[in-house]
Specification:
By secondary structure, the protein is an alpha+beta fold. 37% of the residues lie in helices and 19% in strands. Strands 1, 2, 3, 4, 5, 6 and 7 form a 7-stranded antiparallel β-sheet that branches. Strands 8-9 form a two-stranded antiparallel ribbon. Strand 6 and strand 7 form a beta hairpin. Helix 4 runs antiparallel to helix 7 and helix 7 packs antiparallel against helix 9. The longest helix has 23 residues. About 15% of the residues have low confidence.
Length: 331
């Protein structure tokens, strides 16, 4: 058995034991309406006091309700008691940390905090604004809270789930906006690593912004150091180089963009015809491309072909794709 096949088998076996869903799912929890945040307590005990943290010139924030949950924890809507401005608060809590790996987890946390400071400095119309983060070390456990811009219209994934596939004109619009975000972060030497509908959020005007870049992968690493079940981003959107654990660069986001275009056109993830993530790993790792929708224009078809090359160097850059006729169709 060659090394590449052995690597895919190891990744595939691990994937079969992981959660199949990732990202925020819409939920309702009216019972949380009266709860107040105490960021200095455990995320599991965030009752009783008002959060005192200066964000957007407001120092006091009230937790209003739970608005989502995912593989790494829960998301809450918060409201400034000073200005009435809304903010999202994502809470993550590890399982108990074994003593012998605690130091490794702490090192990852230090890198996580450093990265969050960098994300906070990113300011662009196509990027969800990060306001800050808080880490609380408890007895054999770690709590992480991330404060970010609240996007009232939810995610592209949620919108596809509620109303079905987008028109090609809508796909053009959102693809262009995603590319504008990618051009910006790639220019800042950031790689998203997890482009998919669940991580693309919509504002009141239904314009999209990129969210959760890097944070899911870093939480995955922290969780693995914490003796928790490791978690891998959903394989449907993953590039060959990520699946094979090869070195990767900006072009990994281009492959995932192509997958997201298929998702928007069909309201289904690519490789949806396969029964398991294990099969997807072998297909993508073996150099196969996802099936293209049959009812798309030639411009859309060509755009997808430019995104899907097994060799990362053969994919167009985000800046190049902005000049593609498919994107110019937006007008």
């Amino acid at each position: 058995m060659n090394d590449e096949r052995r690597n895919l088998l190891n990744v595939g076996a691990e994937y079969e034991n992981r959660y199949r869903e990732e990202g925020v799912q819409e939920t309702s929890d009216a019972a949380n309406t009266s709860q107040l945040i105490n960021i200095n307590s455990s995320v599991r005990q965030i009752l009783g006091t008002v959060l005192t943290l200066t964000i957007n010139n407001s120092s006091q924030w009230k937790q209003c309700q739970q608005i989502g949950s995912g593989a790494f924890g829960k998301v809450y809507l918060c409201k400034s008691l000073d200005t009435g401005k809304k903010m999202a608060m994502k809470c993550f809590h590890t399982d108990f940390v074994a003593v012998d790996v605690y130091k490794s987890a702490i090192k990852e946390l230090a890198q996580f905090q450093s990265e969050m400071k960098c994300y906070k400095a990113l300011k662009h119309d196509r990027i969800v604004q990060y306001y800050g983060s808080k880490i609380t070390e408890e007895t054999n456990a770690i709590s992480i809270t991330i404060f970010m811009e609240y996007m009232e219209m939810g995610s592209i994934h949620g919108r596809l789930k509620s109303r079905g596939a987008f028109t090609e004109r809508e796909v053009c619009k959102y693809s262009k906006q995603i590319l504008e975000g990618l051009v910006y972060i790639h220019g800042k030497d950031f790689i998203h690593r997890d482009i998919k509908g669940a991580n693309i959020l919509l504002d009141n005007a239904r314009n999209c912004k990129l969210a959760d870049f890097g944070t899911s992968k870093k939480l995955e690493t922290i969780r693995s150091h914490s003796n928790c079940t490791s978690f891998l981003g959903t394989a449907n959107w993953m590039s060959p180089e990520l699946i094979k654990c090869d070195s990767y660069g900006r072009s990994t986001d281009i492959w995932s963009l192509g997958c997201t275009v298929i998702e928007m056109v069909t309201a289904k993830p690519p490789w949806d015809e396969l029964e398991s993530g294990f099969q997807i790993l072998f297909k993508v790792g073996g150099g196969n491309l996802p099936k293209f929708p049959t009812d798309i224009t030639e411009n859309c078809n060509d755009f997808l072909r430019r995104c899907f090359h097994s060799e990362p160097k053969d994919r167009l850059t985000a800046a190049n794709l902005l000049e593609h006729n498919f994107i110019k169709d937006v007008g």
